[in-house]
Amino acid sequence: MNILVAQSGGPTAAINASLAGVIKAGLESDKIDQIYGGMNGIQGIIEDHIMLLNSIFEDEKNLAKLKITPAMYLGSCRYKLKTPNQDPSDFDAILAAFKKYEIGAFFYIGGNDSMDTVEKLADYTKEQNIDVKIVGVPKTVDNDLMQIDHTPGFGSAARYVATTVREIAMDTYIYNMDTVVIVEIMGRDAGWLTASSALARFDGSVAPHLIYLPEVEFDMESFLQAVKRKLFKYHHVIVAVSEGVKTADGEYLSSDHEKVDKFGHTALAGTGTMLQDLIKDRIGCKVRSVELNVCQRAAGHCTSETDLSESMQLGKNGVKYALDGMSGVMASIFRTSDAPYSVEYGPADIHGIANAAKPVPREWISEDGTDVTDGMIQYLKPLVLGDPDVPYADGLPDYIIRNK
Questions:
Q1: CATH, domain range 156-296
Q2: 106, 262, 321, 357: which sits with the fewest CB atoms below 10 Å from its CB?
Q3: What's this model's pTM, rounded to 2 decimal places?
Q4: For 41-131, where are the alpha helices, taking DSSP H only?
Q5: Are strands 341-349 and 329-338 parallel, antiparallel or unpaired?
Q6: Which active-site residues does the annotation give?
Q7: What top-level class would CATH report for the domain 2-153+300-356+385-397?
Q8: 3-state DSSP call for residue 38?
Q9: Residues 6+ apart with CB under 8 A from 255
Q10: What is d(CA 79, CA 75) in angstroms, rounded to the nearest whole number?
Q11: All CATH 3.40.50.460 domain ranges in the chain, comma separated
Q12: Are 215 and 360 in contact (CB under 8 A)?
């Protein structure tokens, strides 16, 4: 049979490793002939923007380079499928592509919204008795997918966040004056990535001094008092804050209700900047905010080998599950030990994953909500380990990019 793979959502430093895993498993299987890639996610499949991948990645050098290349080789989209009852046209177009290219299995690499697409397609093909296996392959730097210990892309993003916060602290320590730096980190509804900033600490440096996650309500006055106490003790204070921290009424601190994306997510308008202005007005010390923004998602120079290896394995496993006759599942990973670190792989039912988000457990957040516990540190440590062999050319990482 032929297979089809696509990528969706926000980029990560490891999503192409999962794509490499799907391609490698397809090339090595005597049950699979052609491997097709949908350009720009499900939207490209609907619009019949599909390319053949075999000839490119039969070259082992290209496949190895794909594994370490950040972002999405096939491109992405933010496209929400309507239900067939609302509008069957998307499903008609997708099934037409499956038929045209003789597709026996479809693999969608993505996060929460992408798993929504997997669920809808798996249910529809089952209802219509269409023999195409639909399998999800996970990714998201937010680490908020259900039924998986940690998501591909998170470990590398966590490594980047911790490294950057450590370097910001080193930069801040040089001045002999009270200074606050607010580091805004991605995480709309789950604080995993912000929690990873705690790995920045080392002998002689306790930065970040304060960590705020969306799982705990944010109180302005308590925040100001905490900053004042840390300033009195340390004189230099690094605050790591999730973009999605919420006030007691459940509102995002930086909500912009006039802007909503296709999936109904409220746009956020700059939590770090708001807290910078608050400290400037109420405390009056030197203060600046740093928004890590897109840099934390696709920092290929800061990937962890653990992340890349696991991501590639999950791509391979997705193909295995389809060949075993499974549909409506996501390739998943389950931790069996922190020290020594070990995991097991297996399929997870997509219906327990789509349209849900996994929060940071409350027991991994300090009682006062301004730090994380040792349990979180033990969970995080193995995910950032290992240095992949990244090829360099002219002093810069040598990535692969699709010829458009």
A1: 3.40.50.460
A2: 262
A3: 0.94
A4: 41-46, 54-57, 60-68, 89-100, 112-127
A5: antiparallel
A6: 142
A7: alpha beta
A8: strand
A9: 266, 267, 268, 269
A10: 13
A11: 156-296
A12: yes
